[in-house]
Amino acid sequence: MIRAVYQAYRNAEFVVYYQPVFDMEDRKLVGFEALLRWQHEKHGALHPTDFLGLLEDSGLIVPVGEKVLQDACQFVREMQDSGDTGLRVCVNVSGRQLEDGGFILAMLDAIYDANIAPSSLQIELSEQVLKNHAGTLSRLFPEMCNAGVRVAIDHFGVTDLPLEALLRLPVSLLKIDQSLVKGVADDAVAQATMSGAMQLARRAGVDVAAVGVEADAQLGVLNSMGFKEAQGRLLAPPRPASSFLDALFS
Fold first, then answer.
1. What does DSSP assign to residue 162?
2. Rounded to an integer, what distance in angstroms lies between the CA atom of residue 52 and that of residue 129?
3. Rounded CA gap, 250 and 247, in Å?
4. In this structure, are strands 88-92 and 239-240 parallel, antiparallel, or unpaired?
5. Where are the beta strands (DSSP E) in the chain?
6. Which domains does the chain have, with CATH numbers?
7. What CA–CA distance (Å, rounded) separates 49 from 205?
8. pLDDT digits (tens, 9 = 90+) for 6-43
9. pLDDT in tens, 156-208
10. GO molecular function, one example (predicted)?
């Protein structure tokens, strides 16, 4: 499989899809999350769960991640040119990328090459990455903040890390994992967890977003709880950049 991953990289088969992110109050589009896909010649668009480990093991996650940053920043530049300069793009970053000495430079290059405001880029770090790479992040957080990019905690709810500690980090957004969002309409434990997270985040001045919204019942509960943003197939599925850009300029 490693050989297949190298071949896919050479053939430019790793592409970026974009999922719209909406404001919960007025359903206004506020940005996009960049989602990596492997456009496999036989199996179609493969999800990262099928290949991300291979990219990590091979080290290709670094150049692929840099390409995602470049593509994502260029995409949001084109979307902003349509009239909404407040749109942002969210990019997930792995621990392997953070440990690579060139991450900050690659991030800044992507921003400057696309000629976007640094605040148009949101770097998303999972709980697991925050836990496993705390030492490196203690150095990188000031650099990211000084550059003006936003930082979000992604996949909250999948580890046992205390939220109080996470919210002491210089982050602007807490993204609740789909595993919790899935049960928010009828699971008392999920509701209690999310309600507690919401209260702590508010006290810390951090907005809260929901990922993986797939049902109207979920959306209703999230709205009543005061979530700031949401994304999911109910609202809009991930699509290639071309489908958004073609709609704009057709």
1. -
2. 14
3. 5
4. unpaired
5. 14-23, 29-40, 44-46, 88-92, 121-126, 150-156, 173-176, 207-211, 229-231, 239-240
6. 61-233 (3.20.20.450)
7. 32
8. 999 999 999 999 999 999 999 999 999 999 999 998 88
9. 988 888 899 999 999 999 999 999 999 999 999 889 999 999 999 999 999 99
10. cyclic-guanylate-specific phosphodiesterase activity
